[in-house]
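Reviewer 2 asked us to include a model.

Predict the structure of this chain.
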Amino acid sequence: MDGLGLAPAAMLTIEVLIYAYVQGLAVHIERETQAMSAAGLSSDERLGTQGWTMSAFVTSGRYPMFTKTIRGLGAEGYDFDLDSIFETGLRALLDGLRIESLRQSTS
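Predicted model (C-alpha cells):
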C-alpha cells in the first residue's frame, strides 16, 4: 500500500479488512478440522454428511439464488478446494478496493 497516497487511517482500515478475512477463513477451517477429527471423518466424508442440510436449503424455497446455484452445478458437483476458495476471496477483496475512494473518504 506504500506509495498509493493513502492516509494512515485508510491503510489501517485495509489492513484490518484483510486480517479479518484471513482470520475468519482460518477459524472456519480450524473448526471444520476439529469436527472431522472428533467424528473420525475425512473431508469428503464430512461433506457427505452435510447433504441433508443442502437438500433442506434447496427444497425449502427460502433461498432461490442458492437453489439455482446448487442446481446449476449439475453432475460435476463442487470441488471444495480451500486454497482456491482463499485465493479467489482474497483476489476479490483486493480487486474490490477502490483506492481512489479510500483516498477521498479519509482525507
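The mean pLDDT is 83. The two ends are 16 Å apart (CA to CA). We have added this to the supplementary material.
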